[in-house]
UniProtKB/TrEMBL annotation:
Family from the record: Belongs to the cytochrome P450 family.
UniProt-listed Pfam families: p450 (PF00067)
Principal subcellular localisation of the protein: membrane
Membrane topology of this protein: Single-pass membrane protein
UniProt organism field: Platanthera zijinensis
Single GO cellular component term: membrane
Cofactor: heme
Family matches, as InterPro entries: CYP450_71D (IPR052306), Cyt_P450 (IPR001128), Cyt_P450_CS (IPR017972), Cyt_P450_E_grp-I (IPR002401), Cyt_P450_sf (IPR036396)
Protein name as it appears in the record: Premnaspirodiene oxygenase
Gene: CYP71D55
Highest classification ranks of the organism: Eukaryota, Viridiplantae, Streptophyta, Embryophyta, Tracheophyta
Keyword Heme: yes
Amino acid sequence: MKESIKLLSMLRVADLFPSMSFLISCLDGSSFQMKRLRREMDAVLNEIIEEHVMKGEDGGEMEEDLVDVLLRIQRKGELQVPLTMDNVKAVILVSLFNFSLFCTSKDMLVAATETTSNTMCWVMSELMKTPNIMSKTQLEIREVLRGKTRLEDNDIHDLHYLHLVIKETLRMHPPLPLLLPRTCNKATELLGFHIPAKARVVVNVWAIGRDPTIWKDPESFCPERFEENSRDFKGNNYEYIPFGSGRRVCPGCYLPWPE
Ligand code: HEM
């Protein structure tokens, strides 16, 4: 529990602002944020392992958990290939992302990490395909960060073009292309369609983002299109909802950029 809270609080750092830092670092050719995050993550993992080792030495009567089992296997050394401490850490890390340590943390970890890393991959992929947009993004980052060795939260506000790049990426590659399914409470007529009560409804955000009746030349990666319109991604404009909308809108959509 304690570790999960710690990881969660790191995620706030790791996801909302520094994932941008990571992206900026990649574009700027340095990875100092990644190295720092790796060090911090490693410290948390070391703490988890240390607590379990001490619990083992106390001869604790508590039920074994996954980490206890891994450490026991490691101690006995009965495997053909020895289990290193890095192996143990890797399993803990994956488990933290997959098992429910406590409900909110699991949901938050998965919701926050997969979506963000997926978006960053698409940003890099689109930029690689469009060298002119890549250069423009790099130029802005280098100008804004000139002479700095460390990013501050406020620097994000000056990275206007990067903001457009991310918005355009989310239009073309929403990480949850069908959002989360909804159930219709009561029978409804919508645009001539009859939706029965209890029907499961999915919203195809991917298709909406590429609808030629909404977007000009929808298959082109063109961040500038967002200069000309004021669509935000906070669920107010139904033609652009990569973070969903309504009462279950993604809480992560409040990125540190003013709209
Ligand atoms: C590029 C980044 C992200 C995208 C595109 C994204 C997208 C989404 C989408 C589409 C949903 C479902 C909304 C709906 O069905 O209406 C959702 C839910 C959620 N997201 Fe995100 N997300 C991102 C980052 C994050 C981050 C950083 C966090 C946490 C800090 C987060 C936490 C959540 C949670 C907890 C939910 C469930 C909300 C609920 O069911 O009430 N997401 N996200």
